[in-house]
Specification:
This protein is mostly helical and about 450 residues long. It contains 15 helices and no strands. α2 runs antiparallel to α3, α10 runs antiparallel to α11 and α11 packs antiparallel against α12. The N terminus is likely disordered.
Length: about 450
């Protein structure tokens, strides 16, 4: 069994440690700034909208997240992998081709879904309150902007411009949204509503889309701009199908609790639970920050057949992720209630217990390491999609039986149990398929 000792925390992986610290520090810094801004935004929305209004906003955003995954068709993950491989092998025709075809695909799929949303709202607007209807209408404009921009971020990530992509994707957009919401909260509180908050999201997304387009044009290798594109549409479609399933099932694992809380409870329940989810994300943001740095490296090392370096990179990254998550988790468990009361207000104190449950679950996930990212970056997305489909079904089953009697606590338990089983299965699958141990206990 692995024992934590200072002299072998990273083993003989000094170069990998420095590589991760260089790339990870920037990525982690971006994540920290974004979390601070997101927390400030959440506070302003929670206090300005109240539990019910915040619940409407959160539910609408959960639906938007579902639509984003459907519109992406698995393209972001495939883009990171294919572009990383193409750049490593200097296959510029393939790189140009996958960029063009993926952007065409996500643009038309997102426009189609936006039209369907608009038509549904127009036909069934009497089923919702005016506030809900107006808030949902903004999805029609926001969906294409976010989907296409995320594809652009994936291209930048595959080209190893991780921090620049993350800066635009997270703190810049969050800052723009927070600035708009704080302006309403401070100077026109009567106009701070779920629909106006969503309108601010559209304005911020438009600015980020334009900035990302200009940045990508400047950073693309010159060869990819002038060479004739090579299209492997059938191969990309074959790869995208299981990646779409992965995205969809990951969405179920992350959003089923909020959607089912709205169904079985009320907007107030969703607002209270949303605070728990936002707090628990702090435990996992080290995983999110480093994954963007290490995922392209997984694809490169696998394509070069360097299994030893791949194992060392996985081990180092897993231990860094866990050590960063550990103090955050214990802080939220032990002092979560006074923190919630101080930041969000006394009406959100019920968020503490589900927050503690979700934080503990995220710490367990951190201990399992980046198994999912490794499977996708090495071309094992089909078997991963099967595992995720089964655990997504378990998630829905547990939410169905635990939410009615236990509310937000039941939702948190359902999420932690299903996600825990998922990451344990992914760990075992990586060992079987690649002979690599992704956990913090690998030797």
């Amino acid at each position: 069994m692995f024992k934590f000792r200072p002299h072998h925390l990273f083993g003989d992986t000094t170069s990998f440690k420095h590589q991760l610290l260089r790339g990870g520090t920037g990525s982690l810094g971006v994540k920290v700034i974004n979390q601070v801004l997101s927390l400030a935004l959440g506070i302003a929305l929670a206090r300005g909208l109240g539990p019910s209004g915040y619940g409407i906003y959160s539910f609408t955003f959960a639906v938007l997240t579902v639509l984003i995954v459907l519109a992406e068709l698995g393209m972001p993950l495939m883009l990171v992998r294919e572009i990383a491989k193409s750049e490593a092998l200097e296959d510029w025709p393939h790189l140009r081709g996958v960029i063009i075809r993926s952007l065409q695909t996500v643009f038309f799929s997102s426009i189609t879904l936006s039209f369907l949303v608009f038509s549904s709202l127009w036909l069934f607007n009497n089923k919702f309150s005016p506030t809900q209807t107006e808030t949902f209408f903004w999805i029609c404009a926001l969906l294409p902007l976010l989907v296409v921009t995320k594809a652009l971020f994936s291209i930048l990530t595959g080209l190893r411009h991780v921090v620049k992509a993350q800066a635009l994707e997270m703190p810049v957009r969050t800052f723009l949204v927070a600035s708009g919401v704080f302006s309403l909260y401070s100077f026109a509180p009567k106009h701070l509503s779920p629909q106006n908050a969503m309108a601010v999201q559209v304005i911020a997304a438009t600015i980020v889309f334009m900035a990302t387009t200009v940045l990508l044009y400047k950073l693309l290798p010159q060869q990819a701009l002038i060479i004739k594109a090579q299209f492997r549409s059938r191969a990309w479609l074959t790869a995208a199908i299981p990646l779409t399933l992965i995205g969809g099932t990951d969405l179920i694992n992350n959003q089923a609790d909020i959607l089912m809380l709205q169904f079985f409870g009320s907007s107030k329940d969703v607002g209270i639970y949303r605070v728990s989810v936002q707090g628990a994300i702090l435990v996992s943001f080290s995983m999110q920050a480093l994954s963007s740095v290490i995922s392209p490296q997984f694809a490169r090392l696998h394509s070069l057949g360097d299994k030893d370096r791949l194992q060392r990179l996985v081990t180092v990254s897993a231990r860094i992720i866990f050590l960063l998550a550990l103090p955050v988790c214990f802080t939220l468990i032990l002092a979560g209630k006074p923190i919630i009361t101080l930041i969000f207000g006394a009406e959100f104190t019920e968020s503490h217990v589900p927050l503690a449950i979700l934080a503990a679950g995220n710490l367990f996930i951190a201990s399992m390491g980046p198994a999912g990212f490794l499977l996708v970056m090495t071309g094992h997305e089909r078997i991963m999609s099967k595992i995720m489909v089964m655990t997504a079904g378990l998630n829905i089953f547990l939410n169905f039986f635990l939410i009615p009697p236990f509310g937000a606590i039941g939702a948190a338990c359902a999420t932690v149990i299903s996600i825990g089983i998922l990451y344990s299965a992914l760990l075992l699958t990586v060992k079987k398929c690649l002979g690599i141990n992704t956990s913090i206990f690998s030797t």
